[in-house]
Amino acid sequence: MIITDQAKSYIEKMMKENGEINLRFTFEGVGCCGPNFGVTLAEQRDDDKVEVINGINVSVDKKVVDATENITLDFEGTEEDGGLVIKENNNCC
């Protein structure tokens, strides 16, 4: 996983506003390409894969570790009208 500098700035701002210190990728079911995941500001769980990426504490539910390995988390838009985007570095469907 890659977290761009623009995404890092946005995530740090959201963490400060929400009093959270961890970005967590969660299991959200299974699709045609395998497990689907969500992204939230939440505490890590005991069985998560935990690492620091570009200065951001990241935990990943073990069910979606493989699905998140080849993604880039980026920011698009403006401060007033922007958000995180997930770019997959491989397409399966």
Automatic annotation (TrEMBL):
Domain Core: 3-88
InterPro entries, per the entry: ATAP_core_dom, HesB-like_dom_sf
Coiled coil feature spans: none
Matches recorded under SUPFAM superfamilies: HesB-like domain
Protein name: Iron-sulfur cluster biosynthesis family protein
